Amino acid sequence: MIYFTELENLPVYDVKGHYMGRLVDLVVDSSQDALRVAAYLIKTRKKNTLCITHEQMQSISVRAGQTSVPQEAVRCYSPDEGLMHIKKDVLDQQIIDVNNRKVVRVNDVDFDIQPTDGHTELRILAVNVGWGAAIRRLLQGILAKHVIRQISGLMSSKTIPWGFVNLIESDPARRVKLRISFDRLASLHPADIAEILEELSRQEQKAVIESLDDETAAQAISEIPTKMQADLLESMPAEKAADVLEEMPADEAADILQEMPPETSAELLADMEKEEAKDVRDLLGFEENTAGALMTTDFIVLGDSATVEGAIVGLKYYEGPLESVHVVLLVNKDMILTGSVTLARILLAEAKTPLSQLTSGPLISVNAHADNKSVVDLFHKYNLVVLPVVDEVGRMLGVVTADDVLELVIQRK
Amino acid sequence: MPQKKFQHFRTRLFIFLAVVGPGIITANVDNDAGGIYTYSLAGAAYGYSLLWTLIPITVALIVVQEMVARMGVVTGKGLADLIREEYGFRITFILMILLLVTDLGNTISEFAGLASGMSVVGVSRYICVPLGALIVWGLVVEGTHKLVERVFLVACLFYIAYPLSCFLARPNWTLAFLNTVKPAFHFDFPYIYMIIGLVGTTIAPWMQFYLQSAVVEKGVKIKNYAYSRWDVIVGCIVTDVVALFIIVACAATLYASGQREIHDASEAAIALGPLAGRAASLLFAFGLCNASLFSACILPLATAYCVCEGLGLESGINKRLREAPAFYSLYTGLIVLGALAVILLSEQKQIPIILLSQVVNGILLPFVLIFMLRLVNRKDLMGDYQNTRTFNIIAWTTCIVMIALTLVAVAATFFPGNHLTG
User: Fold this and answer.
1) What is the DSSP letter of A165?
2) DSSP state of A287
3) Which of A4, A108, A201, A260 is the best residue to mutate to test the B interface, defined by the most B CB atoms within 10 Å of its own CB?
């Protein structure tokens, strides 16, 4: 194994033993092999940059590198945005450690030296973020390499295998060229993605969100602070922002839109699907800190003459978020709330039972203009999971779910 | 139509209030214990005659601070982050160590300032220093970013103590005004040292790190950058207006009555008593305590931000202790060491540490200014927000003058008998 700190400034000689220059950077071509060092950049005495391909590199060690060709056969380096440069793009940059779900800064990069049919290849093993690597960076070029190895060996070494490293490239075109994907990141829990997002600058957040699918993006954005949500969505292309908003529960989407300047929120609403946009618009009409502003319009409602059988069929067509499924609400033909049945009761009852027979206790609901405190009190008093919100005449408007109330209570503390 | 205009104004005011904070706070902390002493000394020793320097100083401060605020808004990254990404680990690490040393020295000066300010009303330093340390520590560790910023903004309001104290001193306003707008330069060394002292106390490296990190943590958007710039400009002007009142207050009393030498800021406060009344003296001392405590909070905070950014560790007031252990350890460590030094060491023994910190401050500043100027001119980082050509000329001139003056000040600290940058 060899570290980048040991490779930097390594003297390189050609096949006849002529000194060519010092190694300044390593290049990886992700379109061919994402792990192999495809080329070595050398700075000559005359300050020219040469590019030695991996096939031309005969041997490489902590002492020196040697090519298998004469100096004349090595071509000059022409900068290429499509290649990943270890020093320029990886070293000292922030990366996402997918395994530990954290954003860290790279102190060093570890390579494996592999003899491959007649020449030597370097393959990326891991990035190093520990104190040992930091010490190597500090002492690099000051002490002999074996002394540095001994000293850094005393410190903790923290490496992240390359497979768990996600580079953060904010230029989308370059992201494609470097084949940076956020597949691994997307497999994390949205709450973990959210924590990573909070560590990044806005452009980087944008890069991550744009590469996630709409649903994952919406879930992750749901978990970050409201102000950051609004800023992030505002800075994204309106189309993508609207797609993400559609995937969110209507109440959260409304909260975010409320944080934005009116022109922006109007533009996003116009870009959203009609149905979702309408739900959000309805919510935007309510004053802050009322049940109306807190509620979501995603809920399951059935006519009060429905049976268990009908309810189960109805549930299959439900598309909204799952937190409001715990309760099925019953209304009469004027959309006036007449009862609520928990999912558990529906599942345990006979298929032909009318839902109106399964309601339990008195019907609890709240007026849309009631303040947050009375909502919290109702949840507390009746141990609710879902609370229906109605207008003055008792028409169904939406539901407040327990997770929203929990957030409210935590915020207050 | 007027209704609409008013609404438009109201929206803009709201955005400004949402963006305001970092610039005003950073600039005000500039008037810390050391700053107040330097201004008091300038007033006591030279009367109104140094007031003109405040205008160029304000301009220089605005030029430098505007650039870092802009970098924070555009890149979304702290200055230490950017230096690390562009100049590598070693340089960043050395800068961080230097900042740590100079800010430890500064923190000691702040707690010493608190102790001396409180001594005017007879409170022992054994009581006020530990108590002050506990308050600032608890505020940042327990508080959210929003709360901390509000407390800081309130601390900024308390600087009103200096204008009030100044009015009580009944200065000659005509003379003060004339001296502010009309430069007058003498070629004698103590006078030049005094000017260097005034400049040196105004622009310090921690300010650039702190302002940029604070702007980033605040999450200011590019389209609202204009408001952020006003935040910086207003902050710098207010700060130097406060400095002006300090100089004028001391000029009207100490200088006028021939008491031209003072050894710390509380001495100025005490001396104001017989000349301008007990109220003026108390206000002056109160201002000193407020400024010291405020700075004793921000300096360790700025250092903790910078070191954590540079090393890629988690940082931010909004983080919990468990989430950002290094950030809070650094913050706590600096406050504890700063307070302990004032409690345990005699004033004589504090001087070498404070002098060392000033020298390090002088060494650090050129690097920070040059890195900053180079970063702000990077097209790939700043896009359309690079410096314009004209602004670059102004910025480079400012920075070169700053660097030259700072280096002279560093050299001057090696000669005994000069505590000008105190």
Assistant:
1) E
2) P
3) A201
